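This is your field. Pick holes in the following sequence-structure pair:
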Amino acid sequence: MWIRAGVRGDLGSGDGLGAALAGTDAVVHCATAAGPRDVAMTRRLTDAARDAGVAHLVYVSIVGVDRAPGFPYYRAKAECERIVAESGLPWTVLRATQFHELITRVVAAQRWLPVVFTLGGGVRLQPVSAREVGERLARLAVGEPGGRVADMAGPEIRTARELTRAAARATGRVAGLRPVVPLRLPGRTFRAVREGALLAPDRAVGRVAFGDFLAAR
């Protein structure tokens, strides 16, 4: 994790974090990893930032981490939010919906399969531009700490099946001809997702629609 030009701090081990944070006014924490490692990295960063006297810690999280806790990754993000809020640092947490890039990467990861799997059961997503989220994080970092600020979501809500089909078509004619197979998963978490746990319809402030993102690639 590069925090300042020419100075590197390792969130995995903690090495160099103190030197990297020295004299830093604000930190935007976007690094992530799977499960317990994500939590450990966030704890190392908050401890080092507090020791360095950082004046503002900004953390990006995900819409729905408290409504879909059955996902291990979401449970870790919720725990990271708690660590940030209880760190003793002035803080801001921004939750955003899924990035456009996540959908295309999931499709690309299945490029050798005869079909493309996606979430079924009418699951809807509200993807947002990573660039736009980054711009908002930068504005938050230079402002006053705001605690949990308003969520940020993309401009349209579409089913996961529609988004997956559009991404598959955009990867080329052959990929676009592969059937999209929706998976309906059991359990309360998936039911919550079907009911809109990952959506923020009242915060559709993103300007770049998924189709626009695909067209610009």
About this structure: The mean pLDDT is 92.
